[in-house]
Amino acid sequence: MSTEKKSNDKDDVLLEMKGLRIEGQAEEEWQEIVKGLDLVLHRGEVLGLIGESGAGKSTIGLAAMAFARPGCRITGGSIVFDGIDLMAASESTRRRLRGVRIAYVAQSAAAAFNPAHRLIDQFTETPVQHGIKNRSEAEADAKDLYGRLLLPDPDNIGYRYPHQVSGGQLQRAMTAMAMACQPDLIIFDEPTTALDVTTQIEVLATIRDIVDQFNTAAIYITHDLAVVAQMADRIMVLRYGELVEEADTRTMMSHPTADYTKTLWAVRSFRKTSPNIDPQPLVRVDHVTAAYGNVEVLHDISFEIRSGGTVAVVGESGSGKSTAARVITGLLPPKEGRILFRDQELPGDYRKRTKDQLRHAQMIYQMPDTAVNPRQRIRDIIGRPLGFYLGLQGKERDRRIRDLLEMIELDPDQFIERYPAELSGGQKQRICIARALAAEPDFIICDEVTSALDQVVAEEILKLLDRLQRELHLGYMFITHDLATVRAIADEVVVMFQGEIVEHGPKHEIFTPPHHEYTELLLSSVPEMDPDWLDHVLEERKEKGIMGSVSDS
Amino acid sequence: MNQPVSKTAQTADAAPPPTPRVRGWRLAWRELRKAPWTAKIGLFLIFCYVFIAIFAPVLTPYGESQVVGQEFEPWGSQYLLGTDALGRDMLTRLLYGARNTIGIAFVTTCFAFLIGGTCGILASVLGGWIDQILSRVIDILMAIPQLIFALLLLTIFAIYIPVIIVIIAVLDSTRVFRLARAVTLNVAVMDFVEAARLRGERIGWIAIREVLPNITAPLVAEFGLRFCFVFLTIAALSFLGLGIQPPTADWGSMVRDNATLITYEDITPLLPAAAIALLTVSVNFVVDWFLHKTSGLRDEH
Predict the structure, then answer these.
(1) Count: domains in chain B
(2) Where are the alpha helices (DSSP H) in B64-211?
(3) How confident is the model at residue B4 (pLDDT cuts 50, 70, 90)?
(4) Mutate to test the interface with B, among A375, A423, A464 (most CBs of B within 10 A)
(5) CATH code for the domain in which residue B287 is found
């Protein structure tokens, strides 16, 4: 997959887009979302498309199949695939290409598979439908590909239904499905974004291998720079539907020229300033065991959160980190153990807590879209805790809302009357922060607050949270699966795995060896910007014999 | 606006432009102009029905139950649509029928929504055994065919208009309950509802301020449909003689009273039925438009 190898077939152009223009419909008006883009892809080459949300990456990816999502339309430019002018071709010609010569791997495999059919039935559908293979040939093919993609029990896994395999396996099954007709081009649209890091690394490795084995060309769409550095031969950076910069992966990683690219590259550089942490614990989680029904999801958890300090709780999905937050807030009363706030025990059920106890612990959610009521104005969203807890009314309340908006760096005059739909994701998350601050809490639980945001925006939110911590002397519990976020903001780290704390200590200790086995796996799975990172990690793991992720077993 | 730009966060993600602040009547007018022709026709016809219902006494020279001529007189200049079995003016009865049938159906539907909507929202916000009890009671009510159940209850209780209203409202509230409960469930799992719970809000605030504004669209659409069903139920009951009692004019009983005329190839008894059909179609046109608009909004999320 090195760039040198690909350079010898440079003349062999597979896909060429010229002056591509796509419009999208918003509020019954058409707006241009791709503004005259040129793109050339050679046979066997992997092209990385990166940019933040709204940059038009996915739209361009779909346009490679001459497909526009409902509410979008291709208005100009040419799309030539292997000598066929797709813009001029009939819909039936295009349909014959899709799935056969151009395949698509979607971000969420769980949503892209039909839950009512077995994996192998969905695999064989395209080749059989197009008359390329008969059913038994296609099934044999599927088993072969499942094996190559390192799925467990390749001969039988296809007879399972989508819900019977894990997320990482499903994503690989989808990649296998895309390979079913041995296409010339595969479009990967954020194929690993929904996966845990430890699973992501395997999907990345298998995708790279398979693309290499079949010499398939690919367009790899992602917002994660470290991932694209592993996968792509060449990278195009997009913003607002326009090309910012295009270069060889290595050149791009080492010498970005455009300012925008440089800010993207620098995005993970934020580190919090030296904290001023109280020695007394603010919140103590004391030997907590919790269960949903009969399924125990937390086993004897203990840690402490101090004013002015941040405890990052790290782990992959299902590790119990969000459950820990639910126990602290009282949504899930613990089976055993207690939660102490300033050395006073809190009732396990939030309904039994006093208004003041509720006020002290606030929460910021992962998805800012669902965390604010779309039918309330910003004024009401932030104003409610002020009135509810502090009894502020009228002018006094209005003044405080404006103070809070300024504190979260949004202009009060501009935002106070808006509805959430009129805000961007990052702005909505700021509103959630303001709502939490309105209660004048001592302690805030941040549940994956940056994972739904673009990296540049996420960094701004982290900086804001850090500033507020210093100014208001808040204690944070920061739930995340992203170790880059941990590096940026944590003072203490709690590593969780299958409902237990496997490692716990100050940040510098966790990040310096020796690690617990699971921490090691977690740390080594986080993609780095170095284009050779994946090769190194895979080699190391092969030596140690720890290929095969814990979560996927 | 007049603050320095640097004070506002330089968020890299683009915020959707704030929609121009058109509210109230101007917004309604703008939406109306963009409405499809079916919705416009529907709205126009509904408006006509309401107009007739309100101004019935002004629109006709005769009284509601006044006997003005011979039985079954043909259409003519004095009695535009002839007279009925007792010699009352057919047109007058039709106009008054609009008032009675639509009025009673409207009040009944409002009651059905008050009962079903409140119980449905509470059941899913509270959950647990309250939800279980309410849902099972509703299941039992729904297990018995609605019209037969209504007939049964009406023969037990006396046939007064308030009794009819209460019985149909209760029976129809079961459908409203199911819808309200289902759409509330979708909203009640959202983080902003959890945030309100954790804030310590009372159940009333959560139901009215957090949940209700987010489910009004499906409820309003259901209101239109439910109104049609209630309307048809009342007409059916009247046709069977257990609905609105004579001499009060009502479209359902008018069909029955004059049914014999059909054997003489006279279409007059079908006119009240046509009035019912036309109103039902109009309401459905409007509901379709409304549903399309609100589901279109949902796509954006």
Answers:
(1) 1
(2) 90-126, 128-143, 146-156, 161-188, 191-199, 203-205
(3) very low
(4) A375
(5) 1.10.3720.10
